# Entry
Amino acid sequence: MCRDISGNAADGHSFTTSYLINLCGFFPKAALAVSKNVNFRTPEKPDSVISFFKDHGFSQTQIRVLIKRHPQLLIYNPEKIFLPIFQFFYGRGVSRSKLASILSSNPFVLRCSLHNRIIPSFYYFKDLTHCDDDEVLVAYKHFQAVLANDFQFLIAPNVAVLRERIVPESNILSKLVTARESLVQVMRSLKGLLKK
# Structure
C-alpha cells in the first residue's frame, strides 16, 4: 500500500513555484513543472521535510532530485511517515550516506507503508536471495519492485517455475540482486533462463 496525496488548490502554484526556486534551487521552468504535482500555501510542511532530509545527511542536490521525482513528499509529515522507515533501515546497518544516496535516486519507497509493504518485501527478498541487508537496498535502487511493490506476488511464481526446471540458484539470484531493469525486463530475463 503506497500513498497518493494531491495538493489543495490552483492558487498554491505561485507560492509553491517560488518556494521551489528560492529554497530548493530549482530553475523556474523545472519549478513550474514540479508545482503541477504538489501545492502548498505555507512553508511549514515543506520546511519540515527539507529539514528532516538535511538532518539525515542528504545534500541539497539529493533533496532537489528527490523532490523532482516525487514532489508530493513535500507535504508529508516526516516524523510520522519518513522517520520509522529511516529507523528501520538504520537498524539493518545501512549508513546515513548510503541511505541518502539510494533514496534520492529512487524515493518511491517513502510513499509506502512500512509495516504492510516495506518490511514484508524486505524480508521476503532477503530470504529469497540470501543477500545481506544492505544488498536489498542496492537491489531496490535499481529495481523499485523489490520494496515498493508486492514483490512476492510479482516474482515468486516465476522463481518457483525456474526452481522446478532446475535452473541453477546462482543464476536466479544474480538476476534478482543485480537487476538494473524494469519489472517487465526482469520478468523476461527470468523467463529467458528457462530456455538455457
User: Anything to note?
Assistant: The two ends are 36 Å apart (CA to CA). The chain has a mean pLDDT of 81. The chain is about 65% helix and 0% strand.
